[in-house]
Design goal:
The chain is mostly beta strands and 222 residues long. The chain has one domain: Hexapeptide repeat proteins (UDP N-Acetylglucosamine Acyltransferase, domain 1), CATH 2.160.10.10. Helices cover 9% and strands 35% of the residues. It has 2 helices and 23 strands. Strands 1, 3, 5, 7, 8, 10, 11, 13, 16, 18, 19 and 21 form a 12-stranded parallel β-sheet that branches. It has a 9-stranded mixed β-sheet with strand order 2-4-6-9-12-17-20-22-23, with no helix packed on it. Strand 22 and strand 23 form a beta hairpin. The N and C termini lie far apart (40 Å).
């Protein structure tokens, strides 16, 4: 709680001074060209590469690590949370879980998404979690065993995730794939360069790896 109020106080500072304070007080690794907007970041480890961005009014808490690569971004009004590690009474069947979010270089999570990082979430390089109000969930109740369980979520390289989707624990979207708007990805898919769609999502048709989106050398689509 103390760190939250301290970060509130730091927000009144010019960014260059606030960045220095975050480095000194919390040990965060923030590149000179990276920037955090008016957002609260409560994580053990923060790494932000060159030109990495966190937008305004985003809340990140409970994570072991938040890593945002070169020219990658976490947009505005996102809620990123995790059940912290080290609590003996919870998730005892998943001792190796890693509460973290990794956004690789030139990848982007846009605005107003809900991301549960009770286990690791990775967004691969040049991928986009687009639109708004999508959910990524890494934990759920195991009905058979009547207990909480967690599993990581992986979004591959050069993927496009449409608006309003749900991605469930253990799911994987392979490289160069598209998850269409409103879909529910419930499993680890294996075929790259594929359009996945539906509830639950299934492979619909192959995609052309030569498409311009898959050839980008920077993360932002004009």
């Amino acid at each position: 709680m103390t760190s939250i109020w301290l970060q509130f106080l730091l927000m009144v500072l010019p960014w260059w001074l606030r960045r220095s304070a975050l480095r000194l007080i919390f040990g965060y690794e923030i590149d000179q060209s990276a920037r955090i907007g008016l957002s609260l970041i409560s994580v053990r480890t923060l790494r932000m590469g060159p030109k990495a961005r966190i937008g305004h009014l985003t809340r990140v808490k409970g994570l072991q690590e938040l890593s945002i690569g070169e020219a990658a971004s976490l947009g505005n009004l996102n809620w990123v949370t995790a059940f912290p590690s080290g609590h003996a009474a919870h998730f005892t069947a998943d001792p190796a879980r890693n509460p973290s979010l990794v956004i690789e270089r030139h990848a982007a999570i846009t605005h107003r998404h809900l991301i549960d990082c009770t286990d690791r979430v990775v967004v691969g390089e040049f991928s986009t979690v687009a639109g708004w109000r999508s959910q990524i969930l890494t934990h759920a109740i195991d009905i058979r065993l009547s207990r909480q369980s967690a599993a990581s979520v992986s979004i591959g390289r050069y993927c496009f995730v449409g608006t309003g989707v749900v991605i469930l624990k253990g799911a994987c979207l392979p490289d160069y794939s598209v998850l269409s708007a409103g879909s529910v990805l419930a499993n680890a898919m294996s075929d790259a360069a594929m359009l996945y769609s539906g509830v639950p999502a299934v492979a619909v048709k192959p995609l052309d790896r030569g498409s311009a989106y898959f050839q980008r050398t920077q993360g932002f689509v004009n």
